Amino acid sequence: MSGAEARVPDPLRIAAAYAWRIIAVGVVVQAAFSVLGQFHRIAVAVFLGLVVTAVLRPAADLLARAVPRPLAVAVALVGGIVVVLGVLALVGETVAGQRAGLEREFVSGIDRIERRLEGPPFRLDPGALDDLRSRVGKLLSSHRATVISTALSGASRLVEVLTVLALALFCSVFFTHSGDRQWRWFCDRLPAAARKRVAVAGGAAWRTFTGYTHGILLVAATNAVLVGIALSLLGVPLAVPLALLEFFAAFVPLIGSPIALAVAAVVALASKGALTAALVVVLIVVVGQVEGHLLHPLVMSWAVRLHPVVVALSVVGGAVAAGVVGAVVAVPLVAVVWSVHQALSRRTGAAEAV
């Protein structure tokens, strides 16, 4: 060791060694996200295809015991599509059936909110609310071209969404039918020294992903049923669409359900008054406790245990990096990476013990 190196304290030398490794890992992660950003639609389609495969593969495997596997895959896929379209049709029928009553309730509800804002303790000037309405109307009329262009861009985005969904279904058909053979073929193309490690990592990743997918579906379905029953008992309109919103929001752990129920509270306030809205707020607390202390620990025990702080940081980091899609993908991605690390560590430890 030279004299200059001897004068450097050991803690500083160790910290520097870890620092450049962390920087190298950060550069690789940033490069990976940059590449995925260029092909994010394909990445989202593959992710959705894996989700559909994790959901439908058990049913397809069960049906394959009685019928040929291609037919089993087709029946499972068509059955899943029929269920999804049936739920959407139920929501559409509910909204159409309640449309006239909803318009009256929301108009009267907005009037009630305005009267409360005009009274104590807010004491807003009635003219201020009228002025706000007129300003919003003028803003919309002056920016009509912008609104139309936004609607057109929304239509083009809808085409992109449909394209991604079609690609996801296409991928899920082949993943469900022969995903294991495709993975073995991929492993056989690798160098012989890496095949075993990649096979172990892939098995751990798939077990964790399927466990997390099944668990989060259970959480979402349970939350949606609880919310739908509670909103129906409270007489809140649009209970079925709000329950469906809660179902999809539950895929964003920790923050999705409160946001969906906050929307339900606003609907309750506008249609039924402050008391019903307060009861919905209580429902937010109850569902949060059930989800946080019962359902999510069960999900993590099926997949891999992650500390709530890790889950929260993953959701926020994913949302910052890729918006809503990042928030949905972040937790299963972290869970898969951690399970792969644990599987490879156990394999290395077993090899060293031998």
Describe the model:
With 354 residues, the protein is mainly alpha-helical. It has a domain at 191-354. 89% of the residues lie in helices and 0% in strands. The protein is built from 12 helices and no strands. It has helices spanning 3-7, 10-38, 40-63, 69-97, 99-118, 126-142, 144-188, 192-234, 239-249, 256-271, 274-302, 308-353. Helix 5 (99-118) crosses helix 10, helix 8 runs antiparallel to helix 12 and helix 9 packs antiparallel against helix 10 (256-271). The mean pLDDT is 80.
List the helices and strands and how they pair.
Elements: H1 3-7, H2 10-38, H3 40-63, H4 69-97, H5 99-118, H6 126-142, H7 144-188, H8 192-234, H9 239-249, H10 256-271, H11 274-302, H12 308-353
